[in-house]
Specification:
It is built from 14 helices and seven strands. By secondary structure, it is of the alpha+beta class. It has a domain of about 130 residues: Nucleoside Triphosphate Pyrophosphohydrolase. The radius of gyration is 24 Å and the shape is elongated.
């Protein structure tokens, strides 16, 4: 670590830069812990410019914790649609309900209490309490890791528990007693706008004369890259199942992947199975009926964090058997214009877009 006097200068330079260069973001106009909390959850795995309109819509719909706690889950998920990682939205609602029940409707200021809320871990707790209440708690996200690794030439990337612990300790040591919330935001801002993963803008950096990685001549060496796990490839068949002018949709089980979202029925293709055979089998297993395939509508390719989906979409009609959905929370027959009232996973959302734009079933 740096000597104390130099550390004080670095902190001062960073805060001065933040005061003059910080972006004008809506959640920076408040010290309300609920508003800050919502922004921090939305910003996980999501770019700032994507989050801004979602944040504004959310705060209009749920300006208070009480409103969120009382809101139907379907409305919560619909407002989240497009941000992905829907467990974040469900956890926000669960945590709001817990705060109403256990903390008299007030976001707790105690670190252990706030950690007890669904969806809040060490990073989010530190962000909320430091920004809203100026508590001296560090934060550690991807941007902070990169800034710290380069500033101090650390060969740490957080890939192991030991590495993560080391970075948390550095973040804690680096944090000043005064303005810790602004300081945390300053480090994150520097990583997001200047100390970029590729082609960092070192000439614009307020810490360039202190940066150990710059002195070594290759800032991009820090932090060392994490080993990458190849995304799993999955092939799926889905049915636009019609009965007259209505389409069958079902809600995914709440405790499963993307739980609570709506989908078109279908499932994963097994080895040596055609997409058509897959769909016939899956519909028989899920709904207890046989189907007649009318036509193939499209093939959709969509990438999630850990897997890539190729989705074969067919228009089908009821065949023999009695409809008995067994692997969903609930199901509906809806007109194509009603589809936008439901929240679908991203790949299924492309089917919805096709059906609503064509204006027919």
């Amino acid at each position: 670590m740096l000597k104390n006097k130099k550390t004080v200068k670095i902190r001062g330079a960073l805060l001065d830069w933040y005061d003059s260069e910080k972006r004008d973001l809506p959640w920076r106009q408040t010290r309300d812990p609920y508003s800050i909390w919502v922004s921090e959850i939305m910003l996980q795995q999501t770019q700032v410019q994507t989050v801004i309109p979602y944040y504004r819509r959310w705060m209009r719909a749920f300006p208070t914790l009480r409103r969120l706690a009382k809101a139907p889950e379907e409305k919560v998920l619909k407002l989240w649609e497009g941000l992905g990682y829907y467990s974040r939205a469900r956890n926000l609602k669960k945590a709001a309900q817990k705060i109403q029940q256990d903390f008299n409707g007030v976001v707790p200021e105690n670190y252990q209490d706030i950690l007890s809320l669904p969806g809040i871990g060490k990073y989010t707790a530190g962000a909320i309490l430091s920004i809203a209440h100026d508590q001296p708690l560090p934060v550690l996200d991807g941007n902070v890791k990169r800034v710290l690794a380069r500033l101090f030439a650390l060969k740490e990337n957080g890939a192991s528990g030991r590495s993560e612990k080391r970075l948390w300790q550095v973040a804690e040591d680096f944090l000043p007693d005064t303005r810790p919330g602004d300081f945390n935001q300053a480090v994150m801002e520097l990583g997001a706008t200047v100390c970029l993963p590729k082609n960092p803008m070192c000439p614009l950096c307020p810490l360039k004369k202190y940066c150990a990685a710059k002195k070594l001549g290759d800032p991009e060496r820090f932090p060392p890259p994490k080993p990458r796990t190849p995304a799993k490839k999955i092939e799926v068949s889905a049915a636009v199942l019609q009965r007259g002018k209505k389409i069958f949709i079902q809600q995914r089980l709440h405790d499963g992947l993307m739980g609570g979202l709506w989908e078109f029925p279908g499932g994963k293709r097994e080895k040596n199975e055609t997409p058509e055979d897959c769909l016939v089998r899956e519909i028989r297993e899920e709904l207890g009926i046989d189907i007649r395939i009318s036509e193939k509508l499209m093939v959709i390719k969509h990438s999630y964090t850990r897997f890539r989906v190729t989705l074969h979409v067919f228009r089908v009609r009821l065949g023999t058997g009695r409809l008995k959905p067994t692997q969903c929370e609930q199901w509906q027959w809806v007109n194509h214009e009603e589809l936008n009232s439901y929240t679908f996973p991203a790949a299924n959302g492309k089917i919805v877009k096709y059906l609503t734009q064509n204006g027919r079933v």
